[in-house]
Amino acid sequence: EISAPWTFHNLQELRHSASLANKVFLQRDYSDGTTCRFQTKFPSELESRIERPLFEDTVKRLNIYYAEAEKMGGQSYLEGCLACATAYLIFLCMETRYEKVLKKIGRYIQEQNEKIYAPRGLLITDPIERGMRVVSLQLLLLLCVCVCERETDKEKHKDR
Amino acid sequence: MPGFSSGGLGGEVGGPAASPPCPFRPSRFVPVSAATTFLVGSTTLFFCFTCPWLSEHVSSVIPIYNAVVFLFTLANFCMATFMDPGVFPRAEEDEDKEDDFRAPLYKTVEVKGIQVRMKWCSSCRFYRPPRCSHCSVCDNCVEDFDHHCPWVNNCIGRRNYRHFFLFLLSLTIHIMGVFGFGLLYILQHQHQLDSVHSSVTMATMCTAGLFFIPVAGLTGFHMVLVARGRTTNEQVTGKFRGGVNPFTNGCLRNVSHVLCSSQAPRYVGRWRGKQTVEVQPPFLRPPLSEAQLEAKVLDNGIQNDHHSSRSKSSLEQMESQSADAEPPPPPKPEVRYPGLPRADTEESSLLSEGPSTPSMYKYRPAYSSPQRNHTALTHPNKMIRGDSLDSPSILQSSRQASYRSEPSSLDGGSVIGLAARGGERGEGPGGSSGTGGEVAGGISGYSLGGRSYTSYPSSLVLSTGGSHSSSMRSAHTHHNTLGTLQSEGTTDTSYKSLANQTPQNGSLSYDSLLTPSESPEFESAAHELSPQKPHAPAAFPTAMTSSPPPGVRDVPLQGYTSPFLSAQMAQQREGQLLQGSASFSSPNRAYLRTFSPPPPNPPHAAHPETQHHLLHQDSRHPHLRATSSIRPLPPVSEQHSPSSPHACSPDPPVSPPPRGPSLRKSPSYTGEAGLQHKARSMGGASLSGEGGVRVTQAPQSTSRPGLANHSTSKPVGGVKKVTGVGGTTYEISV
Lengths: 160, 734
Known about the structure:
The complex is a heterodimer.
Chain A: H1 11-17, E1 23-27, H2 52-70, H3 74-85, H4 97-117, E2 122-124, E3 134-139, H5 141-159
Antiparallel strand pairs in A: 1-3, 2-3
Chain B: H1 7-13, H2 24-57, H3 61-82, H4 93-97, E1 106-111, E2 114-121, E3 126-127, E4 133-135, E5 140-142, E6 147-149, E7 154-156, H5 161-188, H6 196-228, H7 232-237, H8 251-260, H9 290-298, H10 306-309, H11 313-323, H12 333-339, H13 345-353, H14 378-388, H15 391-400, H16 405-410, H17 412-424, H18 433-444, H19 456-466, H20 468-482, H21 491-499, H22 514-526, H23 536-546, H24 567-577, H25 587-592, H26 603-620, H27 625-628, H28 645-648, H29 659-680, H30 688-701, H31 703-710, E8 715-716, E9 719-723, E10 729-733
Antiparallel strand pairs in B: 1-2, 2-3, 4-5, 6-7, 8-9, 9-10
Helix pairs in contact in B: 1-2, 1-30, 2-3, 2-5, 2-6, 3-5, 5-6, 14-19, 15-21, 15-23, 17-18, 17-19, 17-24, 19-20, 21-22, 22-23, 26-29, 29-30, 29-31
Family (chain A): Belongs to the ERF4 family.
GO biological process, one term (chain A): protein targeting to membrane
InterPro entries (chain A): Golgin_A_7/ERF4, Ras_palmitoyltransferase
């Protein structure tokens, strides 16, 4: 049986009520080691919900962001030296490079949700919430459809 | 000073204040307290008694230098102690739902051309990413798990490995400095050796000298690990022994990764921003292509566009969709079953190779009581769950004598007979009761010899029999995964599958009745690096049987049978458990033959040959090892050939193989751990599992190296298989 969140319109509530059904998970792509990458394979469940290029674009952009976060360059090296020099007290006031990129990723996902996924009845959750193991996409379509139907049915019954 | 040797035992040995009621809590903090005391105390004494003279008569830089080094050591020590090592949060229920209840215990991914296994973690409920391991002391999966260090009372993982490594380096330098400058002081005060300052200096020198040997050894060990790009866990389990490490990027890059990479983020305890996206139906839909439209017309409606239906039926469709994420494959049991003896790609190759371990399924049934009015989906789950309860016995036996559990796990095949009989009784719904009965008849020929009965092989059978659609799906997914799984397995897997009590698709409640009471104990016992308490295995059956979860009628029946449970008792239990089971559909037959009952002969006698045989078998079919792991040991098929032609035909050569990897894995690891531990005891390796494991597994360690030697890589068809001592096999595409 499915709980009937007929009055839910907010994303958070919908997410919770749809938590156990209709979720698509994008797994990590470990072909290049343990660096953070997600598979860009288009899940079959999304075929009727979103265009493939849009989806792949999102995942590829996420992969780019994660590669940027994990890049071992001058900035990360300097950050490490500074942290050692200050006995890691610098972390009390400064944000690590990774965290900065993660915030950027969070903003990107929010923007993608607003612009592309929510209008199609999908919701991407930030993989950091799951330990960066999967990206979950919630398919919100059915619940909302049922909400509309129920309301229209009620109206019909009222009229009669 | 207590030896730095076995980390797990060191804590307890050095804890005289450990109170019996809660033995763990105080003893966990003893090593870290001792380390802190020695570090801070000795350094303070050095600064107070030795440094004043040194700064006056030698150089004032000396105290400054020592202070800097000491602060660096202390900072890294604190970071290593208090920093989250990279703990993965527990997976939510919805993530688990994606995998069927017969999903395999291992998933294989290819990392730089090398097959790496990801094991299902029953505590955390996800497939552990590569290099991730579950720490039983912390009860968490840790990313890039290195080891659990009792001296910092924390796991060393991705986030704090750098701090741990720098702590070791700086501590070595600090000890050398203290010892060196103390020696300088003593040499200049040879006429005043009885003064307080001199005696204190000599005391600190002794302490420093005593600690120098293990610390330097451990530092050198980790320097080698960093250069090679390995973790302690991988080194100790011998994963890459004689093989290729897929996680290395070259010495320089490995070192820079440890030292220069940005600090990884923490996964737990993050502040979650509230998303406020407004969702307004109707939703946009991409235009459907011709092929998609055609597919919709042809399919049986499960993949229908719900949006377009716009009726109450959409609810049912959603329900069905949640139950079956994809349309069930066309049922062709008659075709499938005969296909098995032939070279039917994965399955037949699986059969010919022989399954490695019995419990390769992360057993995730919904624990539904018989009274619940569930669909047929739940019936096989019920049986599976009950069956899987046998795995604690396997765990036990694996603890004590790792190979003993193998035959018992083989007994899982005999459960099929019971299950089939249960199905025959016509309990529960089942569309294909006719075929189920037929299958049962064939299976019943198998004797239920052997001791305990593993659950998971029967779970495979039962689940397929439960509901037609679910069985199809399971069969489908199972078939797909066969080719990818490696047949490396341990007896631990059976027990993990037992502990993993996941609700079935139909039941949305996550309150697996057995999970709370079972899984922590299972996990803690089964984890490779967990401190193995010799009495723990023995405690399992009693603990399990004494604490059945409430609300489940089957729990008492499904108690954790000891490995030495008589066949009759096991039969009885299985029969009771199977009372609600649906009949078996014909796809079950595809798996029935794979789960042939184990040979009734004692496992010990069969161990040497089976291991040997298994190793050879594995080397012959490297890419199929994963699939073979799904099935229990088919060796028995030889004995049961007259009873069922289907089950027996392909199996004769397969008999020993399944046990080999399982047998190899845990004992060889422990044996290896023991051997390596001895070699590294100087370095004060603080692996939590070593000491206890060594105690229990020492007798078998001698046989393990022999096994390991057998596992030479045999290039087969362009795939080179390399087996580590730890039992992990890596396949390298040549």
